[in-house]
Each structure stands twice: as structure tokens, then as C-alpha cells.
Known about the structure:
By secondary structure, the chain is of the alpha+beta class.
Amino acid sequence: xxxxxxxxxxxDLSAFYAHSNDPHGIRMAAFTPDDPSDRERFDAxxxxxxxxxxxxxxxxxxGSSEAVGHVxxxxxxxxxxxxxxxxxxxxxxxxxxxxxRQLLExxxxxxxxxxxxxxxxxxxxxxxxxxxxxxxxxxxYANARGKEIDEVVLTLPH
Length: 158
């Protein structure tokens, strides 16, 4: 596996959009926009992300320049969170873990936080492999599931 991170390029957005509209990915992520298929809203969201100097966002590639996902750190100091999304055909091979580890090396600030639906065991495992520990549980409305669900809160300490 040859996972690397690079700056987001305009051409990556079509892959990100396709990933964010995969029914399995939507279910796993749970906390998605009301309508992931709204391309105009998607483009506006990514324009804001790319213009915000406080957000560290990288495209994940594997063995080529093709975007297989993205990983980022966002939020105010002391409450910064990590997030990632990997295209389904790349699941289960360590891509998310490797990409998150690389991002954590590039962003030394701590603590960092993360959240995942409690039934998203693969994502929780990625976070734990990268040093995050469960620090709480909450409930939140998951657009992708149309109801409130349980969520695990994790922290990467100092």
C-alpha cells in the first residue's frame, strides 16, 4: 500500500462528491448533509473548507494521483476534530488508518477529537489504532438514518 496525502485539487472534488453519495458510505458516516446529492451545496461547502486557513484538509491517494478520499482537522482551538471519508472500494485495507496517521504527524496540536456512530466499528477502530481513546457517548440526529442515534466521542490526548 502506498498511501499519501497532498493538497486538495479542483479535480478531486468529483471523486469526493461520488464518495459522499455512496449509499453504504452515507449509512456508515450517518451524520451527513440533509441532501448529499445537492451538488451546488456540496461545491459551496468545499469552497468554504478550502478557503478557511484554520482547516487542514488533504486528499488521500494510493499509488497514483487518483483521490481515494480526504482527511482533515477542523474547529476552534481546544475543540479541534478530525474527520475522513474513504471511497468504499478502498475500505478494509488500512488506507484510513495510514492517512490519519500521516495527518496527525503533520498536525501536532493536541488534544484532537473525533466522533463516530457507535455501530461504525471500522471507523472507531481506525481512530483507536491512531491513539484516540473513547471519552464519552452522545446522541445526535443522523440525517442519513432519519433518526437520533448513539455516537461515540473519542480524544487524542496531549
